[in-house]
Amino acid sequence: MSQTSEAIREAYRPRRPGILQTLIETAREVASRRRLIVYLVRADLKKRGADTLLGNLWWILDPLLTMLVYVVLIAIIFQTKREAYPLFVFCAILPWKWFSSSIADAVTCITTRERIIKQVNFPKVVLPMAAAAGGVASFAFGLIPLFAMLIFLYGSHLTAWVLVLPLIALVQFVFTLGVTLLASAVTVFYRDVGNVATHFLRIWFYLSPALYGADQIAALTAKRPEIATIYNLNPFAALFESYRDIIYYGQAPEWGALGLVLGESVVLLVIAVLVFRRLEPAFAKVI
Amino acid sequence: MQPAIDVRLLGVRYNLRLTRRNTVRDSFKNMARRRTGPSHFWALRDVSFRVPPGESLAVIGPNGAGKSTLLQVLAGILQPDEGAIEVNGRISSLLTLGAGFDPELSGRDNILLAGAFMGIDHGDMVARMPGVIEFANLGQFIDAPIKTYSSGMNARLGFSIATAVEPDVLLLDEVLGTGDATFRAKSQARVVELMKAARAIVLVTHDMSWAREFCNHAVLLERGNVVAAGEPDDVVRIHEERSELRQRSITPEELQPIVDAGLEPVAGGPGRGSRGR
Fold first, then answer.
1. What pLDDT, on the 0 to 100 scale, is given for residue B214?
2. Which of B102, B125, B225, B277 to mutate against chain A (most A CBs within 10 Å)?
3. ∠A253-A255-A257 over CA atoms, to 5°?
4. In whole angstroms, what is the distance from residue B95 CA to residue B56 CA?
5. Looking at the partner chain, which of A4, A189, A284 has a beta carbon nearest the beta carbon of B78?
6. What is the mean pLDDT of residues A43-64?
7. pLDDT tens across B54-89, in order?
8. Using CA atoms, how far apart are residues A118 and A87, in angstroms rounded to an integer?
9. Do A5 and B9 touch (CB under 8 A)?
10. Do residues B202 and B171 make contact, with C-beta atoms less than 8 angstroms apart?
């Protein structure tokens, strides 16, 4: 190999696009392949509905049964003083189902598509996006029992503040998408992320104000404000409380806390896109 | 005239450490232990060639020479680690059959899903659906989940989907022996038809008669390098001589890689790999 070839080789060395260019390219790819995302989500929904006796009814039953478990545990066995506990806990179960099912899909979405990744060139970013979007579907179905409860059982809790729900869901979507992208890309290189995720999600749920209220945490940490600060770093502290504000308490959410989560989520999403795009070329080689 | 495919000093590197370790524990082990052996492996290096419009290139070579990797790069599935490639026109790759298949979905849904993966416009795919179904000859099974299909039915559906769209640039990787005799004849006819319509073809094959018959140019890949290029008859002859030596357990004399043949000076040349669509 002659010297000229080294020089030419250098001249043809591929360059990596800049940060802004990567973000724009990713947005363009997602826009051009939006139908693929729709297909993937629909395929996922179809699969879950098929082969079961009650079919799509499970989308509604699933969060209700989870709620029942916690109602038995907290309201009946632990005798909580909280009024309308089923509604209280349902406000957290519903968004959590969305988040946890998205993460569960994210850790498998790339590795299970091994064959197609090695055979067809397509933007891999659609796979975790479909995982995140699939979670939204489960959330949307869960709204049916939520509003049924609000209207028929807990009419006194129903206020116009419920209409803010899409806004809070949007904040959660940005956060979920960021985590989904990161989890899906890292799992390609470390398969044990999937095992860790299950346990990590469980601890995360119990550390978030889902089964209990943020007011209880505030009472516990009254003498140690720094612990409360750490506690509130968890985006789901603000998210659960916001859902609860508009559904259970019928009042405005804490806009400041919600805005902070949105800001953090946007930063996370940008980092996640950059990490994902940086790792993407290696997917076909590694899986 | 602008070439349909322009490949310059292409290099594709596999990171052996990355592909070997799959759990966190293994990577800790690797960190603790002194690393031995090479950390990466060049599946392709210094590969340059050009396919003008209307021409067809046969890529031949022994197993593990990098032929399939080359097709994956041309299809855009792998990114070059070195060098630049340019493909002008719509690419279709028949790399392996059964792409995009989701076992729980019906054949019909799979056709749409595969089309979406390949980036084919939805309306276009819907319009081509009857043709795909007819060619695959699946009858009423088209609405059954494809997990109920036999492997032959699967392969037939895969072939029909992959050949549904007439590409400008056709990449073929040894997919001609599919299904029963009837379907094999039908699929060969279809491939020949596509090859006639395509603007450019890259065919990876072990069947030298295909290289001779359908290609007007050939390259011989060995260990990731182009070691011979030219008329199919000549290149096939070199390959066959060397294969025969290998069969008699004689290692043939190593050929010098052809590195920058046909490359123009690159003063002010393109800096980054581009991909025309």
1. 83
2. B102
3. 100
4. 17
5. A284
6. 78
7. 888 999 999 888 998 999 999 889 999 988 899 888
8. 47
9. yes
10. yes
Quick one: closest CA in A to B43, which residue? A285
Tokens of A56: 């799509």
Taking a C-beta distance cutoff of 8 angstroms, is the pair B162, B16 a contact? no
The letter for the amino acid at A131 is: A
* Complex confidence, ipTM: 0.81
Say whether A33 and B80 touch across the interface (CB within 8 A). no
Look up the pTM and report it. Answer: 0.86
| Contact by Cβ (8 Å): A283, A186 | no
Determine the number of helices (DSSP H) and then strands (DSSP E) in chain A: 13, 0
Token pair belonging to A193: 């992320």
Q: Beta strand B56-60 with B40-51: parallel, antiparallel or unpaired?
A: unpaired
Q: How far is CA B25 from CA A81, B21, B188, in A?
A: 46, 9, 48
Read off the pLDDT of residues A203-260 as tens digits, 9 standing for 90 and up: 999 999 999 988 888 888 888 888 888 888 899 999 999 999 999 999 999 999 999 9
Amino acid at residue number B16: L
Is pLDDT of B201 > 80?
A: yes
Torsion on CA atoms A101, A172, A211, A147, rounded to nearest 10: -90
User: Where does A12-75 have alpha helices with state H?
Assistant: 19-32, 34-49, 58-70
Gap between the Cα atoms of B157 and B135, Å rounded = 8
B28: nearest CA partner in chain A: A190
